[in-house]
């Protein structure tokens, strides 16, 4: 049984499949596009130290790593 269908960008990045431009365009047209939620808020039960990683409190920045 085959696995779930992977997005076209992932196939191109891994280099496992070679698609023609027409195949790639057709495949991209059938892919679902979902925009990130703009109004998502963390639940009230979540601890404060985890809320800083919630999408609503983040401004497209990754937390800094300790070396």
First and last CA, distance: 43 Å
Number of strands: 0
Biggest sheet architecture: none
What average pLDDT do the residues reach? 81
Approximate helicity band: 25-40%
| Radius of gyration from the alpha-carbon trace, in angstroms | 18 Å
Strand and helix order: HHH
Overall 3D form: elongated
Q: Tell me the strand percentage band.
A: under 5%
Q: What's a quick, concise take on this entry?
A:
The chain is mainly alpha-helical and 67 residues long. It is 31% helix and 0% strand.
Account of the protein in words:
- The chain is an all-alpha fold.
- The chain has a domain at 1-34.
- The protein is 31% helix and 0% strand.
- It is built from three helices and no strands.
- The N and C termini lie far apart (43 Å).
- The model has no long low-confidence stretch (mean pLDDT 81).
Task: From the structure above, extract its key features.
67 residues; mainly alpha; 3 helices; 31% helix; 0% strand; elongated
Walk me through the topology.
Elements: H1 8-14, H2 21-30, H3 48-51
């Amino acid at each position: 049984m085959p696995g779930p269908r992977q997005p076209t960008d992932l196939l191109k990045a891994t280099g496992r499949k070679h698609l023609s431009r027409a195949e790639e365009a057709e495949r991209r047209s059938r892919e679902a596009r979902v925009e990130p939620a703009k109004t998502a808020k963390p639940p009230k039960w979540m601890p404060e130290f985890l809320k800083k990683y919630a999408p609503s409190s983040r401004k497209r920045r990754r937390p800094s790593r300790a070396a």
